[in-house]
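Hey, sorry to bother you again with one of my protein questions. I've been staring at a protein lately and its backbone has me curious. I owe you a coffee for this, so here goes:
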Amino acid sequence: MVTFSSVVPLWLGRQDWILAGVMIVLVALSHQASAVASSAPQRVVSMNLCTDQLAMLVAGESQLASVSALSRDPISSAMADEAQAYPVNHGRAEEIHLIDPDLVIAGRFSAGVTVAMLKRLGIPVAVFEPATSLDDVRRNLLRMGELLGRTERARELVEAFDRRMTMLSGEPLDPPEAALYFPNGYTRGEDTLVGDIVRAAGFNNIASRLGIAGGGHLPLEQLVVAEPELVITGSRNRGYSRSQAIMQHPVLDEVARFGARRGLVNREWVCGTPRVLAAIERIGALRGELVGSR
């Protein structure tokens, strides 16, 4: 162990003692940083779309060994281009075991059997809950930084996120009322990530008036009676399904004073990452249009 008395000669003057003390503190901090770096996992595998993106943002060079195949899907992933640089996995225990990871990161709804098997094989697994608010974006970034030994990088991302949030969000005096409308007539309330995004963009969510805090079914008839000022729908996935057809119903354009705006891009709000800022900016621009035409 390096001690002050062992490295600083007794004949040094007062100023020299102060300088030497500062140097020793810096040496100690350097040793501490090296210890943290050496204990950080070196082969990390993510098997969930949302943890994929958090890990890609936070991980150091060559630290992330694999991400899920879904991370390359441009419909679902806001970082599909970045994901091309990483080998992919399909969430199967056998393939993940062969990668020889020292940490696996999964989501709460990742395959439970796979997670259980990896733990039985002695592979550390960290499980992330899905984000249900903008605060969860911050929390999950910081947690990812701790897991990967990249706390400084995570803090930088959170600070940048907060700066941008301050620029984009506000508290309008008379916010317009919007209804979120998704496949099968599903809506989201304020206790959800997309609900928090809508609030940050300056809208009141009609789900609150209807007593829906989380997610729930909103019959088309009830939506018509509620008369929101705007209906916002999600973007459609590939192909066609009857569940998505309701988002194209012509009554959505007639029920709301300002009609329906279709195509809230799913990849921008499905996961709690800094990329939700794009959704806030997009919806906030809609509010600007509506307020100007009231």
Q: What stands out?
A: The first helix runs from residue 4 to 7.
